[in-house]
Amino acid sequence: MDLFKIISDIEKVDPEVYDRFDTRRRVFKHISGMGKAVTAATLPGLLGTMFNKAYGQSSNLSTEIVQTLNLALQLEYLEYHYYDTGLKTSGLIPSADIPAITIIRDDELGHINALRAVLGSQAFSPNDPTRAAFDYTAGGKLPDPFANSANFYGTGQAFVDTGVRAYKGGAPSLMSNKAILTAALNIHSVEARHSSHLRLLRRGGVSATADVTNLNAKPKSWISGTDNGGPVPAVTAPVYGAGSDANHPAESNVTQANINVQTSSTAPTGLTITAAAASEAFDEPLDAAAVKAIARNFRSAVGATAGLFN
Amino acid sequence: MSNIIKPDDNTLSKPLYAPIKRRSFFIYAGATAGVTALALAGCSDDSDDNSSFIDVGANDVGVLNYAYALEQLEAAFYAQVIAGGYYLNTASAAEKQVFQDLALHEKIHVDFFRQAISAANATPLKNLTPDFSAINFGERTSVLNAAKAFEDLGVAAYNGAGQYIQDASYLTIAGKIVSVEARHAALIRDLITFNSFVGDDVVDFSTTGASARQEKSKSPSQVLETANMYLADGSKLSANSLR
């Protein structure tokens, strides 16, 4: 273990790491005070203490941050159990896709662990919600996602696009804590990468074109307009629709910071800036109330009793 | 701190001690004066500073201009891609559809930022002159690898700069764009190697810890070190006031 390499690595993602330690000099005093009692065996524990002191701010997180991270954490469980169930369903996922779905499942697990590390005792529950907390058919309104890979990727796309919008909507509420904001942004883009890949699978792989007349089944890797309501519009339209207020327009929005990005842009030579292209260039955030309303479709009676997405 | 890294402290395991020794600079600087270490580290970053560099500025406008610069680079790149031999002669229909969209999205981002900066009563950066001499626009691999570099860089840049934004509405704008860049990056990576939409070069692959499975965001100085390789003299950038 190379402590300074670790700190140097952290600096790459968190340029203020030294500041963090420096403003908490007692961390160093604490360690130096241990003197020769510090051994290789005890060092990892001490490091944990040191990093917790630098990053772990569970005791003084604002209510806003706690609420935002807890919604994100619940969404991560929704996703984790989804992909985990898919991977455990024999014959569901084509063998060529198992590496990808495994990566996505493990990414969600990493996000769960990271969010729990920040939230500590302020996590919504000390226990992990189990598979039984979720109903991935939305009360029978969606086809069984574990019956075939088309269903599986379709519902997966709806989850991940909800997640991307939720993180985006939550980001402003994290601004008071730069380390937490940056972590959330770094999760947000990973979720967007997942969405891109699932959409690629849904349209048929790298050699398949998206069908702009049937974006429900053959989407682009980005959200175009409202994607015709997504994989199963009766359930998934809100994933691409407007949120609860004017600050959360539908994914088809083309006005950014009062600028109409369709009409005020000049197209590259040979191309035309359509409303679709203008909407694709910007994803849209979704507010917590709208995210919860979508997510509540996917909690079972067990999940409802546990208060998920309340 | 110095107590635990004394060379004669035989309670420490060799693997722990050896790598630390290489970084003795930090031992002395870090243990007694973390602030000094920071300042010195900053000096080495600044050593390639040059009066010909264009600084993106400070505060929210600095972040907007930083984003504007990166978007200019991407837009200029894709404009050349769709006029180049690979796209015109060998790209599949699926790849053509992708590169048309990328060219459109990035141009829309450029035009948006220029107007948004003006709307903030600030001056947008000049039109930057790219240097794409390292890219062979006739060759698929060269184009895809460059696209991957630009897209992954863009994601890391937006994620790393979010913390410098003071106005929540600008943070939201950055969030609206970065996820699109991440979608681009994932697809380009899949076009190069299927299932590489997330890789340990861009995401921390540990599943435990504070940065588990998170994008490896980059500081402006890290980002510009790469971006400047694709910018001509007189268009190279610095971001000395983003903090």
Automatic annotation (TrEMBL), chain A:
Superkingdom assignment: Bacteria
Protein name in the entry: Ferritin-like domain-containing protein
From TrEMBL, chain B:
Family annotation (CDD domains): Ferritin_like
InterPro entries: Ferritin-like, Ferritin-like_SF
Name of this chain's protein: Ferritin-like domain-containing protein
Originating organism: Hymenobacter citatus
